[in-house]
Amino acid sequence: MRRREVPVEEAVGLTLAHDLTRIVPGEFKGRAFRKGHVVQESDIPMLLDMGKRHLFVLELEGNELHEDDAAVMMADALAGSLVIQTLVHEGKVILKARHRGMLWVDVRRVMAIIDVLPYKPQKVVLITTGSEIKGGRIEDKSGSVLRQKFQRYGFELHQQVFADDDLDDIAIAIVQACNDEATIVCVIGGMSVDPDDRTPGAIRKAATNVVTYGTPMLPGSMLMLAYRNQTAIFGLPGAVIYDKKTSFDVLLPRVLAGVAVTKKDIAPLGIGGWLND
Ligand SMILES: Nc1nc2c(c(=O)[nH]1)N[C@H]1C(S)=C(S)[C@@H](COP(=O)(O)OP(=O)(O)OC[C@H]3O[C@@H](n4cnc5c(N)ncnc54)[C@H](O)[C@@H]3O)O[C@H]1N2
Ligand code: MOO
Fold first, then answer.
1. So what does this thing catalyse (predicted)?
2. What is the pLDDT of residues 196-240, one digit of tens each?
3. 130 lines ligand 1 (CB under 6 A)
4. Ligand 2 closest atom vs CA 240
5. Residue whose CA is at the smallest distance from ligand 2 atom 1
6. By C-alpha distance, which of 213, 204, 207 is closest to 230?
7. C-alpha 239 – ligand 1 centre gap (Å)
8. Which residue among 39, 71, 117, 200 sits deepest, i.e. has the most Cβ atoms within 10 Å of its Cβ?
């Protein structure tokens, strides 16, 4: 795939390569600009508010697929005759029940043994990314959301730091938190497919082991989990700020209990992975 980053101010007249998502906590989460939209001068303030300082011009090569085409192919392969597929948006297709009834996923299951594991002491650092927050264009909402989530389990946020959409800035902040003996580092924002989304690259740079980038649950599909030695590093998508329950709420208790999460634990989360009410 050949991709070129264009500063938004120079993107007027160019065609968007994929849908762009806007989140206003408590109010709106969804597509603000559609794939194929031709960027107008009047779009620039909104794009900057969404933290988009750059846009991609993409050229797919060989047997590569656009995320929207891949989503449609997967939906066609998975959907039985009693589910309806929505139109593709933001790289996903939603399958909806045609009738009331029981969800049936045709997978053999293993019997579970029930137990309760106590939480271990944790030192938690939050790194909030995004030019729109660091530059003061919009107010940060991640601090209060994450503070409340951790408080529910009896933990406080030790520190919140802010980073620009810059791979090295974010990676340095992660390493610094680890050197400061953080046991959990949460990096929020910049987790999706835009050129200003630097968080996955920064986590890869700082980590000694990447467990997953992508979790088969919604919301929270763009969640990343990695470790730097014993420190767990979460890459949290913007949806964690907007939606009450995401894949983060499923994985966090395991990490708080000191259970090492592996790739094998991630794939089965897709069964029952639709978390919205
Ligand atoms: N074409 C595609 N679009 C999207 C995909 C995809 O795969 N293809 N994935 C979607 C998913 S799932 C999520 S979740 C969102 C969010 O991704 P990001 O983590 O990259 O979020 P940002 O771009 O950084 O921000 C999105 C939105 O949220 C606002 N925001 C971010 N941080 C804060 C904060 N600390 N306080 C307040 N508001 C914040 C930001 O301004 C943007 O409006 O991507 C989907 N789209
Ligand atoms: O809406 Mo997204 O699934 O990463 O949370």
1. adenylyl-molybdopterin + molybdate = Mo-molybdopterin + AMP + H(+)
2. 899 999 999 999 999 999 999 999 999 999 999 999 999 999 999
3. yes
4. 5
5. 219
6. 207
7. 7
8. 200
How far apart CA 16 and CA 119 sit, in angstroms, is: 45
Query: Is the CATH code 3.90.105.10 the one for domain 2-59?
Result: yes
Place of tokens 């530059």: 135
DSSP 9: G
Mean pLDDT, residues 242-257 taken together? 94
Q: Residue 67: CB within 6 Å of ligand 1?
A: yes
| CA end-to-end span of the chain | 37
Q: How far is the CA of 198 from the centre of ligand 1 (A)?
A: 12
Strand partners, 30: 22
Tell me which residue has tokens 């806007």: 22
How far apart CA 149 and CA 152 sit, in angstroms, is 5
Q: Distance between CA atoms of 8 and 165, rounded to whole angstroms?
A: 14
Contact call for residues 209 and 227 (beta carbons, < 8 A): yes
The Cα-based distances of 6 to 2, 9, 261 in angstroms read: 13, 8, 38
CATH fold for the domain made of 124-270? Molybdenum Cofactor Biosythetic Enzyme; Chain A (3.40.980)
Angle, vertex CA 277, rays to CA 232 and CA 106, nearest 5: 80
